[in-house]
Design brief:
The complex is a heterodimer of chains A (329) and B (542). Chain A is mostly helical and 329 residues long. Chain A has a domain of 212 residues. In chain A, the strands form two sheets. In chain A, strands 1-4 form a two-stranded antiparallel ribbon. In chain A, strands 2-3 form a two-stranded antiparallel sheet. In chain A, strand 2 and strand 3 form a beta hairpin. The longest helix of chain A has 27 residues. The N terminus and C terminus of chain A are likely disordered. Chain B starts with a strand and ends with a helix. A seven-stranded mixed beta sheet of chain B has the order 1-11-10-4-9-8-7, sandwiched between helices. A six-stranded mixed beta sheet of chain B has the order 17-20-21-14-22-23. A four-stranded antiparallel beta sheet of chain B has the order 3-2-5-6, with no helix packed on it. Chain B has three domains: 186 residues, 3-Layer(aba) Sandwich (Rossmann fold), CATH 3.40.50; 184 residues, P-loop containing nucleotide triphosphate hydrolases (Rossmann fold, 3-Layer(aba) Sandwich), CATH 3.40.50; 74 residues, no CATH class. Chain B contains 21 helices and 23 strands. The relative contact order of chain B is 0.11. Classes of the chains: A mainly alpha (329), B alpha/beta (542). Chains A and B meet through helix 9 and helix 10 of A and helix 12, helix 13 and strand 19 of B. The complex binds adenosine-5'-triphosphate (ATP) and magnesium ion (MG). Adenosine-5'-triphosphate sits at the interface of chains B and A. Chain B: Keywords: ATP-binding, Nucleotide-binding, Repeat, Sugar transport, Transport.
Chain lengths: 329, 542
């Protein structure tokens, strides 16, 4: 039995509002901190523009995580799916000469297929999602190494690069706006559609959802497939950002993306995985890593920061959720 | 004779020779804006069975949870146990050391663990040298279950158990803890039972009362929370009544009447509900005909449900009646059987899903509030309006404001307190959560409403209002099935009651025969009523 922390009433509603925006405040403080240390190199719009664009794939990846997480399933394979997708684009476009649009369609379909494969084992054979997606991570990583001969493939069709980083709005490359578009779509689905509410019940109480007429299995399959597709889209964006397909670096995004998913659930709509909160969290973490890197702090600190952020984020999100009493007594 | 707390303090009889086992003074607990407990003081004497009564949300469970170290009380209160001063807030491990044990309203079992693990959870967690001797644990668990005459497989996962067996397991665990503890220390213990009986059939309730009497004879005490006044009258020595978190009265059970108790709890007398029961079955048009429903333990002959009819289903523990709502809704898969709705072609029950049942305008209120009915961490309004949520979507956007407004209206109608639709369902008291879940299905206005123990945990006043609401809905044409072990409830609301034994319908009570006593008699007489053909058939089947 866990110690319960009580629900706030009217008197503490200010605290509630503060809680919703606490992460944004902390983010602002972090920016202030680095700006004071590096007034010219950190605190300029060009730096932020790069930050916003370079974390766009990570933002998509975090969104890919929260969809099945809301439905109660973990998808650890989003990092590997991102890599698979960007390498598919590389191999098909550069080595086999397929037109870029077709490559993208194939990459996104591959993401959907990954989601279906997960669903088969998780829902049909009832294997825990952590196990299945951990397994497919290794599986896909192996396939990618075979497919690419473990080499980076440069020379991807310029039109993809142009579409992703070829132009800027307010100085920020396009890729950032793709991530924003995805955030808005998911925010809409989670907050303003019956589908989003049903998904929430599926994640929190499968039997309750079923007895209220929700098609639990279909919803879970849908969530896993969406996750695969969004992760592949992140892969396409990544390939476009780099202009090449890299069989290794995609997995580096996994940890910050997970941390962002959990940290995001402590803000904007505390206690729920939510798209806007996730976006805030991604850029909060991105700011931390960028700032530390610019301070010339060695690479290992980044790993420590990512790992620490993940544990801290999950802990805080547990506390936020624990406060919403889970037992009916 | 009932009296208020002020009268109590001047009462010369209150001077006792034995020091109380439990002595609470000035316990308060605040949740946000709610004062769940407001300066509560309470004495429980050795060997006393002390009833704790009060309407839904009056603070009973909160008091129990303070003693379990689950909630921290506000500073200023004191607790003495066997005359020792105990520091508040209690730590979660304190109650064991002191000799208290609990059956919580939500039972407090771990659903994903086995019966064995749940029974021996403390011993397993504290295993010497970190090694668990499973052979020993297994033997110990078996002995315990035998000692209490309870027949449950120890390797079963708790979430696979029936509600009755789950309750029994929680009860056995609590009594075994107190027995062992007071054996070790030689001091009296205290069992705290927070509504342990709503799931229990009569014979298990008797078993429970025997257990309590046995430990009371040895000097231990019990605190017993229940909304069933008859049980309280039968079995407690003294009662304390809470209202809005304050002690509003106390009474010696011997000298109080049933009506005194009701008045102490809700502050007024209840006039006997004279429900208008309408036309007999013959005159009704048929809504649905269920034919040959069967599962592993149920083999029910065909029966019809008339429009606007309320049918009760009851029987002894394990007789199968409690499965009927689930089989009829497709929540639990039937092996065979069909349902024919309003003369249309029959639907095969084994293929019926809850989703399809809802499309036929059936609705099911499960008995298991926590696992099946609602999600505690999600808000009240979302829980209430989930089934018809698409109605609140206009031009592609869910109208959250309209949902909250509707939930507030329903909350007021069904007396949900506090009526704050945005609060998580889990922050409500048990009875108030039940009201939310009843409101949810009544609002859908289904053609056939299937209920499993609908008024469990609901206080006497509200229970009466729910009965009235059910009767009113039936008048408007809603058909209702009510599976319950509560004969009084069946008498109050039903037009017809089907009695089950060994999965079969063995009797049907209507009209003048539909009384509490007849229902009980039919249940207990059920075994002898099984005809010889039934018996021989069972032999062949098994
Ligand atoms: N975790 C919580 N957060 C916020 N409010 C709570 C919480 N637990 C209880 N309350 C509130 O405290 C009050 C007392 O609740 P409690 O559960 O003690 O009632 P109860 O007497 O056990 O009622 P019931 O007979 O319905 O079980 C209620 O108003 C309830 O809403
Ligand atoms: Mg209670």
């Amino acid at each position: 039995m866990t110690k319960s922390t009580e629900t706030a009433g009217a008197t503490t509603s200010y605290l509630r509002i503060f809680e919703r925006f606490a992460l944004i405040v902390v983010w602002a403080l972090l920016i202030l901190f680095f700006s004071v240390l590096m007034p010219s190199s950190f605190f300029n719009w060009g730096n932020f523009a790069i930050l916003f664009a370079s974390y766009a794939p990570a933002a998509l990846l975090a969104l890919a995580i929260i969809v099945p997480l809301t439905a109660g399933d973990y998808d650890l394979a989003v990092g590997a799916t991102l890599t698979l997708s960007s390498c598919l684009v590389g191999v098909l476009n550069v080595w086999m000469g397929l037109p870029i649009v077709l490559c993208i369609v194939i990459a996104l379909s591959a993401g959907a297929a990954v989601g279906l494969f997960h669903a088969l084992f998780i829902i049909y054979f009832r294997i825990p999602s952590l196990v299945v997606t951990l397994g497919t991570t290794s599986l896909m990583t192996g396939i990618v190494q075979w497919m690419t001969n473990s080499s980076t493939i440069g020379g991807i069709d310029n039109s993809l690069i142009m579409a992703v980083v070829g132009g800027r709005i307010f100085g920020i490359p396009y890729s950032f706006y793709y991530a924003i578009a995805a955030v808005l779509v998911l925010w809409y689905v989670f907050e303003f559609t019956p589908l989003g509410r049903r998904l929430l019940f599926v994640g929190r109480g499968r039997e309750v959802a079923r007895l209220n007429g929700v098609s639990v299995d279909k919803m879970r399959v849908g969530a896993l497939v969406s996750s695969g597709v969004i992760a592949s889209a992140a892969g396409v964006l990544y390939a476009g950002t780099l202009g090449s397909a890299d069989p290794y670096s995609g997995l580096n995004y996994l940890l910050p993306a997970f941390a962002a998913a959990f940290l995001g659930s402590t803000t904007i709509l505390p206690g729920r995985f939510n798209a806007l909160g996730t976006l805030v969290a991604v850029y909060f973490l991105g700011t931390g890593i960028t700032g530390l890197t610019m301070l010339g702090i060695p690479l290992w600190v980044t790993n420590v920061f990512n790992g620490g952020a993940l544990i801290a984020a999950v802990t805080i999100s547990q506390l936020t959720r624990g406060r919403e009493a889970t037992d009916i007594g | 004779m009932a009296m208020t707390s002020e009268e109590m303090s001047n009462d010369p009889v209150a001077v006792e020779t034995l020091p109380p086992t439990l002595r609470l003074r000035n316990i308060s607990k605040v949740f946000g804006a709610t004062k769940a407990l407001d300066n509560v003081s309470l004495d429980v004497l050795p060997g006393e069975v002390h009833g704790l009564l009060g309407t839904n949300g009056s603070g009973k469970s909160t008091l129990i949870k303070v003693l379990a170290g689950y909630h921290s009380p506000e500073p200023g209160g004191t607790l003495e146990f066997n005359s020792d001063n105990v520091k508040l807030p209690l730590r979660p491990e304190d109650f064991r050391r002191l000799g208290m044990s609990f059956v919580h309203q939500d039972l407090g079992l771990v659903p994903s663990l086995t019966v064995l693990e749940n029974l021996r959870i403390a011993e397993i967690a504290l295993a010497k040298g970190g090694l668990i001797n499973w052979k020993h644990e297994k033997a110990a668990a078996k002995t315990i279950l035998e000692r209490y005459d309870v027949n449950i497989e120890i390797w079963r996962r708790v979430d696979e158990l029936s509600a009755v067996n789950r309750a029994l397991l929680a009860i056995v665990r609590a009594f075994e803890d107190v027995r062992r503890r007071s054996e070790e220390t030689g001091k009296p213990g205290l069992v705290l039972l927070d509504e342990p009986t709503p799931f229990l059939p009569r014979e298990s309730v008797n078993q429970l009362f025997d257990l309590v009497r046995r430990i009371a004879e040895q000097g231990s005490s019990a605190i017993f929370i229940s909304h069933d006044i008859d049980e309280v009258m039968e079995f407690t020595d003294k009662v304390t009544v809470l209202r809005d978190g304050r002690v509003s009265g106390q009474a010696e059970t011997k000298t109080a009447t049933h009506d005194d108790m009701v008045e102490l709890i809700i502050g007024r007398r209840l006039e006997k509900t004279t429900t208008t029961k309408t036309a007999s079955t013959a005159k009704r048009t048929v809504l649905a005909k269920f034919s040959d429903i069967s599962s592993k333990t149920v083999k029910a002959r065909p029966f019809e449900i008339g429009k606007g009819e309320i049918i009760g289903m009851t029987g002894l523990i394990g007789s199968g009646y409690e499965q009927l709502p689930y089989l009829m809704f497709g929540a639990q898969r039937a092996d065979a059987g069909t349902v024919q709705i309003e003369g249309q072609s029959p639907i095969v029950l084994s293929g019926l899903t809850p989703k399809a049942a809802l499309e036929h305008q059936f609705a099911l209120l499960p008995g298991d509030r926590l696992e099946k009915s609602g999600v505690g961490s999600i808000s009240i309004f979302e829980n209430m309006l989930l089934p018809g949520i698409t109605d609140y979507s206009a031009r592609g956007f869910l109208n959250n404001a309209a949902m909250k407004k509707e939930a507030r209206r329903l909350g007021a109608q069904f007396e949900v307190r506090p009526n704050n639709p945005e609060a998580p369902l889990g922050s409500l008291s048990g009875g108030n959560a039940q009201k939310v879940l009843i409101a949810k299905w009544m609002k859908r206005n289904p053609k056939l409403l299937l209920l499993d123990e609908p008024t469990q945990g609901v206080d006497v006043g509200t229970r009466d209002n729910i009965f009235k609401a059910l009767r009113a809905a039936a008048q408007q044409g809603m058909s209702i099935v009510c599976a319950s072990s509560d004969a009084e409830q069946l008498e109050a609301v039903c037009d017809r009651v089907l009695i089950f034994a060994r999965g079969r319908i063995i009797d049907e009570l209507t009209g003048a025969r539909l009384t509490k006593d007849e229902i009980m008699q039919a249940c207990y007489g059920s075994l002898s009523k099984l005809t010889e053909t039934d018996r021989s058939q069972e032999v062949i089947e098994s």
